[in-house]
Amino acid sequence: MGPAPSTSPGGATLRVLVDSGLRLAAADVPPKLLEGLLKSLCLPNPAYWKLVRLGRRTGSEPETLYFLKQEGGEVRLPRGAIHLLRRLAAEAGLTLALEDARTLPRERLPPMPTVPLRDYQAAAVEKLVKGTQGTVVLPCGAGKSVLAVGAMARLRTPTLVLVHTLDLAEQWRQHIRERLGQEAGLVGAGEEAVRPITVAVVQSLARWDEARLADFLARFGFLILDEAHHVAASAFYRLVDCSPARYRLGLTATPEREDGLTPLLRLYLGSTLAVVSHEELVSRGVLVVPEVRTVETAFEYAYFGAADYMPMLEALAEDKERNNLILGAVAREAWAGHLCLVLTGRVAHCELLAQRLSATGLPAAVLTSEVSREERKALLDKARAGRVSVLVATSLADEGLDVPRLSRVFLAYPSRARGRTVQRLGRLMRPHPEKKSAVLFDFVDGKVPLLRRHHAERRQQYAQVLGTAQVATAAPRRAAKG
Asked: Locate the Helicase C-terminal domain: which residues (predicted)?
C-alpha cells in the first residue's frame, strides 16, 4: 500500500492519513460510506457466543466486535482495510488522497550477508517491498523465518519481531545471529534490551503504558508478527494497530481460525503475499511426508454433556492401561533410535509419562511452561544434538518447535482444533539427514463417542494435508502394553 492516490473519475477527494492505521476526518466521510465501513468492519464476538452456548451470563461481553473507531472528530480504520476503503470510496464517487506518515527511520541496518531464498520466499519478499504489508502462509518447515530474515536483509530498516513465547524469541534471536551476524535485542522475561533488530514478547509489551509503547514502536520501520493467526486476540491486534512501521509482515502456517476471526489477518497485516501447499513442498523435497498411525485405546467414560468434559480428561490422563499403551509405543520407537515428542494437555500427565520413561533408562525430559526458559533452551539443544530421546510436552510445543531431527510424534491427549493438528503434523515434516521416516501416532479413545468424533475430524485434517491415500494406508492398530 503506497501513498499514490486512488482515483474515481470526476469525484470529490477524501483525504486519508496513513500511519499505524487509516485516519479520516469524520466530517469528510459521507453517511453512506460510513455505514458501509461499519457494516464491513464488524464480526460476531466468539467469546460472547461461547457464553451463550454454555448457558452462562454474558455480562459486559459485547455481542459484536467493531474494528472502526470514531472519536475526536476522526474515523480510524485498521491499515489493512485500505482495499475496502478504496472500493467503497470508488462506489461513492470519491478519490482517495493518501498522506503517508508511516515510520521509516533514517537509520539503516549495516550491510548484511545475502540470505539464500527459495523462489517462493524471494517472490514474497519482493511483493512485500512493493506492497509494504501482507501475510505469508507456509507450512511448518517451509522457511517462514528464513523468508523474514531475508526481508530484513533486503529492507535494512530497524525491525521488531513480535512473538508470543520466550522459546520463540530465543529461536528468532538465534536465526538472526546465524544468518545476519546481528545480535538481536530482547523485550520479555524481565529483559528490555532494545537494539536495531529486537524480538519482543507480546504479553510483555501489552503491559506497557500507551506513551511508552508509542515511543518504542516508533523506532522500527519493519514489524514482523510470528504465528500471525494470533492477531485475532485483542492484545495482539491492538499492538499491531499501534505500530506505525512502514512495513508489516505476518507469518503463519494456519491462517484459518475456527472462531470466525480469520478476516483480522488481512485487516491488520494486509493481503496474502504467498501461499504454498504441503503437497507442492513435498514434491520439491522441501518437506517429508509423515505416516499417521491410529492406536486404539480401551478407555471408557460415561460422557453426557459439557460438564463431564474436564472430569473425563482427568480420568483419561490417570488411566493406567491407557498410559501403559502410550509408554509402550513411545519406548519401542525411542529404543529404535527415534527422537520422540509426546504431546499431552496436562503438566501432571507430562511429568508422569516422563518419569516412567526415565525409569526404563531412556533419556526423557518434560517441556512445559513450568520449566525455566534456560532449561527449555538446554533441553531443545540436547534434542537437536541427539542427547535426549523423548520430550514430553504440553501445547507449548504446538507452535515454533524447531527440531528437524524429530521423527516420532505421539498425540496422547484428545484434540480437535484444526490449527493444532496441522502444526503437530508440521513438527515431523522438516527434513534431516538422519530422518529415515516420520510417523505420527494418534491415540484414539473410540469407546467415547465424543472423542471418536474428534478423531474423525483429525483424520479429515490429516487427509487435507497429506492426501487421503497417505492416511488410509495407516491402518488402525493396537499397541502392546509396555
From this structure: 311-474
